[in-house]
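Hey team,

Filing this mostly as a record. A colleague (T.K.) asked me to run one chain through the structure pipeline before their review meeting, and I want the input and output archived in the tracker in case anyone asks later how it was produced. No errors, nothing strange. Just documentation.

Input sequence:
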Amino acid sequence: MANCAVIGAQWGDEGKGKIVDWLSARADVVVRFQGGHNAGHTLVIDGEVFKLSLLPSGIVREGKLSVIGNGVVIDPFAFKSEIERLGAQGVRITTVNLAVAENAALILPLHQELDGLREGAAGDSKIGTTKRGIGPAYEDKAGRRAIRVCDLRDTDSLGPKIDRLLTHHNALRVGFGVEPVDKDELLGQLKEIAGFILPFAVPVWRLLDDARRAGKRILFEGAQGVLLDVDHGTYPYVTSSNTVTGQAAGGAGVAPSQIGYVLGIVKAYTTRVGEGPFPTELLDETGQRLGERGHEFGTVTGRQRRCGWFDAALVRQSLKIAGVDGIALTKLDVLDGFEELKICTGYKIGGEVYDYLPAGMDAQAAAEPIYETLPGWSDSTVGARSWADLPAEAAKYVRRVEEMIECPVALVSTSPEREDVILVRDPFAD
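Output structure:
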């Protein structure tokens, strides 16, 4: 059976939630493989809005198995809160439809506190994190001092592990002039939450191997986007994990050959949340119009997203790095009514022309977009489910995007509703 990985091709917020939800109808298993509860998805199903930050989008689909892989850092308290919140909306979540990698690292309250302390002290150099402890948790994982889900099975042995963790963190807290972490209080919190999360904990690598052997279709769900990848993004204004396709293998415990078709999610314009370079950002009425029409506010933080024209140079770069086979173009309907549209084809930096965004901070900050102008359209694209439903200029816009990014369009999303999709190629097709 064919599998599929879904990757954000910009700075996140491309509309992955809807696409993953739509694809999950064709999948048996949906897997989150990186990130934490800083990456939100908004799903609109029969008019009801579901906001997810940690759980895979497939959780709202009956009969699907959702999996949180080992590449995810998990706040166990946020995990419990999200399950209870979705339960209040009628989503039944049990150990039958949700599994958590036993070797996933935990986000603890001390991680969130450190995140906030650092951002508060950074001044103009702040990165713009969500202050949810994601970065510090990944640091501890790499530093081999993290508390993992499986460690909660034997809380009597947690003491030495917490000591090792606090040797690092309390030294940092002294530098910030705050009180050290109380070991007994932290241990008590972990003992209290252990009973909730442990029933979901399994060797995910084995679960996915069994699914593969049984011929089940697996959907790998990425968080954020390629431009926030810790290696390939606009560093240091990035997340703390790899967001590219290759992480799906390491973050879920499968072979790279099992990933299958790679679908890049691409918004028909560009947005980003937080600090960092954004060559096509619009600080005028047009940018405000895009934000208002696209309801551009972060699912997790509520922060207003910065908006700008579509950047074909950046998307082309992302798709090549991530090895994308085809794209899902989202939010085309937000462009309805514009007299003309612009697409960035490259940049001028220091008198030179680039068809990609260089890695250096100074070069990225100095990048001036080079635009191609296209005619807009006055008719609505909302709810279109076939090419024939699109205004002629809208169809031309999609085809021009396809040419510029050097990657075919697999599907087009024309509203937040689940079924408003123009399907060109089924990513699960063998």
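Quick notes for T.K.: The radius of gyration is 22 Å. The chain is about 30% helix and 20% strand.
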